[in-house]
Amino acid sequence: MDRAGLELVYGREFIASRVKRLASEINHDYRDREIVIVGVLKGSFMFLSDLVRELQSPVKIDFVQLASYGSGSTSSGLVEMRKDITLAVQGKDVLIVEDIVDSGHSLEFLCQRLLGRGPRTLKTCVFLDKKACRVIPFEPNYVGIVVEDRFLVGYGLDHDEKYRNLAEIYSLR
Ligand code: IMP
Ligand code: MG
To answer: Is the per-residue pLDDT at 73 higher than 80?
Structure first.
């Protein structure tokens, strides 16, 4: 289904197949070790809910919300934590789950913050990777789809808080 002003980029079946593939990589790597999942609000909520249903490890789930200064789709180097997790991560296997990585600033900031709390391991899982847009070097451990540089909405991703509920991924026309 195409929507006004939106061009379909990835449909439900393709998204589901990429989520399954990510989950099997994660299941393979963590075996049955407990994972503390840290979702980045708000964009990750739909991907996270699909991903965790495919995981075999016991999981605990918490969320952070980040704010970045600067306008538009990508963040500046100035990121702050607007909402922190309440779970303790010291000695835990922590997996950050995010909708999309662009400049890399947000995830680099979050990784540094969480590393300061002494997790046993810390990895990152992003559904979409705008690999060519990196401003600082940042390599996520798990990537669903490498995407080109265009603005995407749906499957959690917003434009002015709209479109997060769409089950498919679209580009703004
Ligand atoms: P980074 O800090 O530049 O890597 O930015 C990551 C954040 O920018 C994501 O969590 C999104 O909130 C936002 N973002 C980047 N590209 C897009 C896009 O194409 N659509 C919607 N949000 C985006
Ligand atoms: Mg986000």
So the answer is: no
For residue 1, is it within any domain? no
Residue 35 structural domain: 6-172
Ion ligand 2 neighbours, Cβ < 5 Å: 43, 99
Residue spans of beta strands (DSSP E) within the chain: 6-10, 35-41, 59-68, 79-83, 93-101, 121-129, 142-146, 152-153, 169-172
Using most ligand atoms within 8 A of CB, pick from 157, 159, 169 the residue to mutate for ligand 1: 157
Structural domains of the chain, count: 1
Burial class (CB in 10 A: 0-12, 13-18, 19+), 133: middle
Does pTM top 0.85 for this prediction?
yes
